[in-house]
Amino acid sequence: MNDAAPNAAPQTFYLKDYKPFGYEVESVKLTFQLSPNATKVHSAIRFTPKADAEDNRFFLHGEQLSLISAKIDGTPVTARLVDGGLECDVPRRSFLWEAEVEIDPAADTALEGLYMSNGMYCTQCEAEGFRKITYYPDRPDVMSTFTVRIEGNEPVMLSNGNPTGAGEGWAEWHDPWPKPAYLFALVAGDLVNHPGSFTTKSGKDVELNIWVRPGDEGKCAFGMEALKKSMKWDEDVYGLEYDLDLFNIVAVDDFNMGAMENKGLNIFNSSCVLASPETSTDANFERIEAIIAHEYFHNWTGNRITCRDWFQLCLKEGLTVFRDAQFTADMRSEPVKRIEDVIALRARQFPEDGGPLAHPPRPEEFQEINNFYTATVYEKGAEVIGMLKRLVGDDNYYKALNLYFERHDGQACTIEDWLKVFEDATGRDLSQFKLWYSQAGTPRVKVSEEYADGTYTLTFEQSTPPTPGQPEKAPRVIPMAVGLLSPNGDEVRATEVLELTEAKQSFTFDGLASKPVPSILREFSAPVILERETTNSERAFLLAHDTDPFNRWEAGNALAKEVRVAMVLDGTAPDAAYLDALEKLVRDDEQDPAFRALVLSPPSQSDIAQTLHERGHTPDPQKIYDAAETFTQTLAQQLETSLPRLYAATTVEGPYVPDADGAGKRALNSRILSLLTRLDGGEQAARQYASADNMTQQYAALAALMKAEKGEAQSQAFFEQWQDDRLVMDKWFALQIACAAPEATAATAKELTQHPLFSMKNPNRFRAVMGALAGNHAGFHHASGAGYQLLAENLIALDSVNPQTTARMCAAFQTWKRYDSKRQAQIQTELERILATSGLSRDTHEMVSRMLSA
Ligand code: PHE
Ligand code: ZN
Questions:
Q1: What CA–CA distance (Å, rounded) separates 192 from 215?
Q2: 344 C-alpha vs ligand 2 centroid, how far in Å?
């Protein structure tokens, strides 16, 4: 043990070292005697040595536990406390292990294990939090049934599975489904429920509840409907039914992530479940619906079939993200969902894949697994499944999935198991496809074309830049969906999926009357960066004519990027033809409002920075900001005469309904309002603010006003109206920083950290402020370095409170090598300062060292 050495590199865990645990866990019985500072946990666990075990060392994980007593078959034993747990001499036959430990939930600000949030007890065990509750083989391949007794004075005391008894001061629960410890959950507190019910396709009645703090009852109805829709959808699309009599969701205010799929007792960050028209925006509603679906879908993809080890995390996360995206596409709009997902992938995953934190969807080593709940594991993990589905076709996809559930129900699996069901269901060899799981980095695909005598040839060249630890990359299987349009805009070849497998490959199309316009990477059929020399007029043509809605948006997006890049590099005025194309589209009432809103939303400034970087330029954040401002101002002026009419025509009247249709219209209306506000001095926005009866319109008006520096009075009014609502206050904190001018961003954020409602203990609030700082591209990267400094200071302060959230937010620095040497030096200084902090957590240590070593 060398834990005395300050900030010594922590232990690294490797996929190749996997070894099964030497014991079967037959059953687990836990008794909790709740007390804020001294909760006692008694465990009674039946272990049976495995006959064929390679290793029969009896090691149980345990952290921050005070061991009171340990017994084997009723006889006290002396356990040896070792680094990260305990060891004990045990018999070579089945035996009952009992331990009593004491823990301190009120002191647990890391929000991992058993902790308290607003006086309520709750747990978070994924990935390795159960070891802070009791001594246990805390690894996902150890599965067992759990029986839980909770003793305490809390009005509501919940655990996994079904209730088996309750009385004054106690409640008992039993979960009949064997599960890994990371799915254990306990909640106790003063809670009220919003009830519901669902009858499964085989006729079983399931009781549903959303549990919240008194006062939040009015914010549960939407979540309940989303839950029922998810249950029905999983039956209809995947044939998967719920498997307990009861499904509980609990909302907690202090939570590191979005939500957690604990068996039968999902725990949610309150921001991801509580919704009401007055307090939530359309975007909030959509996200809540998706997260409720995501956690529910985990019941099969994650819980019934779990991961063998944490390297396989994308087995459950990639698949469940893929499933929730299918659900949202079905509930709302398929093209809009796809466009939103690609925007998010490029904003979060591409920078990760192209920087010092790049790792494959299935990493092969880690120091702290909490650092691998990443866009790569989740979102790229889902993209890989989308590619697989495209390659094998829909029927084969569902055939393989049926085989997966049939073959692996009740098991802890690997990516190899997953790919094998596809191979067995389709007869296809997936060994090359598997590279998507082991190689990091975003492939670049260079496209060139040729046309002669009616034959059109597309040539693709793929390559992937080096990533940490992976200098060389082999070619991957890339499904490339392509369609061809004739110059008059007709589709002459419907979408076809070309399979790229080599470094360089050509495909021909015969019998064409004239040189076609290609529509490549339709639906964004693979997570790659396409490189193709083309003209803005061809992009405008595709924006007008492509039959693939994703690529129509993509053409507009590419055009917007080209125009902005040219403005930044050459200081040119915004391209007139592009402005005309936008104007035409905005006025075209035949077009879906949601689509128009998306085309009208400019690429983000960090997206422009990323594009410049990919093309070998050093991005200047201030110039990118200035170009964005000029562009928006010019667009507003171009549309000047039609803006009031467009605003009126897109205003949604009548009671607020959070459906996709209304959301699309409101999104377009908000875009128009923000343009209008640049010209009318904020009159219309002030009127909208004063009359809004829902958060979407209230927030849109406030945002437009604040961006135009005309929102002081409304911001004050907003604060007074909502100061008691934590979730709305998060919006208020974030918006001020998001709207600040570059030179004022850090100062605004700093001032907000002094606000009485700022708190290091609530991750939502911390993220509202520091996330908004990092998200304001020109403000965060302001030449003064004040943004870097402020973030680093706050991360250092947060690390001893909440390492997980600190480490995750360190990723704001991951793009540092994109910028000029002065900014790089400033960031390096901050990263080194963080790394030198004494007692730095393992989480943050790993993230910062990875960023520095690149
Ligand atoms: N497993 C959760 C999900 O994806 C995320 C999570 C991870 C929550 C770790 C808490 C801690 O739904
Ligand atoms: Zn998940």
A1: 9
A2: 17
For 326, 327, 408, 429, 433, the CA distances from 402, given in Å and listed in that order, are: 17, 18, 10, 19, 21
Give, in order, the Cα–Cα distances in Å from 318 to each of 52, 286, 380, 423, 507: 33, 19, 7, 19, 31
Does the beta carbon of 294 lie inside 6 Å of ligand 1?
A: yes
Q: What is the position in ligand 1's atom list of the atom closest to the CA of 295?
A: 12
- Ligand 1, residues 117, 260, 316, 371: which to mutate, most atoms within 8 A of Cβ? 260
Q: Which two tokens stand for residue 453?
A: 């005598």
748-755: long-range pairs with CB below 8 Å, 24+: 749/773, 749/787, 749/790, 750/790, 753/790, 753/794
Cβ–ligand 1 contact at 317 (below 6 Å): yes
CA of 674 to the centre of ligand 2 (A): 35
Whole-number Å distance between alpha carbons of 600 and 475: 36
Which of the listed residues 255, 257, 294, 298 should we mutate to test ligand 1's pocket, taking the one with most ligand atoms within 8 A of CB?
A: 257
Of the candidates 682, 678, 714, the residue with the CA atom closest to the CA atom of residue 699: 714
Q: What is the pTM of this model?
A: 0.98
Strand partners of residue 455: 452
> Pairing state of beta strands 75-76 and 156-159?
unpaired
Could you tell me how many helices (H) and strands (E) the chain has, helices first? 29, 31
Ligand 1 near 259 CB (within 6 A): yes
Ligand 1 atom 5: residue of nearest CA? 260
**Look-up of token digits 């009485």:** 756
ω into 127 cis (within 30 of 0): yes
Burial class (CB in 10 A: 0-12, 13-18, 19+), 410: exposed
Give the closest residue to 495 by CA, choosing from 520, 476, 459: 520
Return the DSSP state at 136.
B
Distance CA 256, CA 125 (A): 12
Q: How far is the CA of 320 from the centre of ligand 2 (A)?
A: 6
Q: Is the pLDDT of residue 288 over 70?
A: yes
- Using only C-alpha atoms, what is the Rg of the chain? 27
Mean pLDDT of the chain: 97
Does 126 contact ligand 1 (Cβ within 6 A)?
yes
The ligand 1 atom nearest the CA atom of 321: 4
- Of 122, 123, 126, 805, the residue with max ligand 1 atoms within 8 A of its CB, to mutate for a pocket test, comes to 126
Of all protein residues, the one whose alpha carbon is nearest to atom 12 of ligand 1 is: 260
386 C-alpha to center of ligand 1: Å?
21
| 350 vs 343: CA distance, rounded Å | 10
Q: pLDDT (tens digit, 9 = 90+) per residue, 145-202?
A: 999 999 999 999 999 999 999 999 999 999 999 999 999 999 999 999 999 999 999 9
103, 620, 760 from 38: Cα distances, Å: 6, 54, 24
Angle between helices 660-677 and 282-297 (to 10 degrees): 140
Enumerate the β-bridge partners of residue 531: 446
Is the predicted pLDDT of residue 16 greater than 90, yes or no?
yes
pLDDT at 5 over 70: no
